[in-house]
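Subgroup meeting minutes
Present: P.N., E.W., G.H.
Scribe: E.W.

1. P.N. recapped why we're keeping a running log of single-chain structure predictions: easier to compare across weeks, and new members can see raw inputs and outputs side by side.
2. G.H. added today's entry (203 aa).
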Amino acid sequence: MFESETRSTSRRLRHALRRRGAACLAVSTALMLGGTLLVEPAAQAASDAGPKEGIQGRDISVNQGNDYPWSEVASAGVEFGQAQATDGDWASPTFDKQYKAIGKAGLYRGAYHFARPSHSSGSEQARFFMDHGGKWVNDGTTLPGMVDLEPTPSAKTADEQCYHQTPAQMRAWIQDFTVEYFFPTPGGTSAWATRPPSSTARS
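Output recorded in log:
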């Protein structure tokens, strides 16, 4: 069952994600769409997944391939996994297998999108994300999609870290993505119209 999570958990999530980006990204924030769960990098060893405060999860990308030890992670107390589905206008070739592996391990699962605000609009990237695995499904095991907004490894200046966007432009991009994901144009999911994001956290 899914029911409302506490606001304090949501604040902890936003704080943790803000620390990953540069100053302007911290203002704009990396956001989970409708979720209030704590995510830790999948690069962390499964042996480090012991009991911690809050609900624990792992996120993986194409860099981890298809052999991530989800069963070991689940045994260590992790309860959900997020696999990268898209990056700007690129779709991950490993997403399908990674996503299935998370479910096979008995974990809640979801997809995430690596945002590229300088490449295209938020609504365009939201539609691409939903078309390539990012849609939410009301099946009791699928989590809402997540946006990963952070500096790219190649960024050398503050302007590059912020995708050449001002804080106001970044906030507008996030809003554009969010509105399209929650209330998409015809052809997207309409689930959010009747199921508010605030009611989708795990009990």
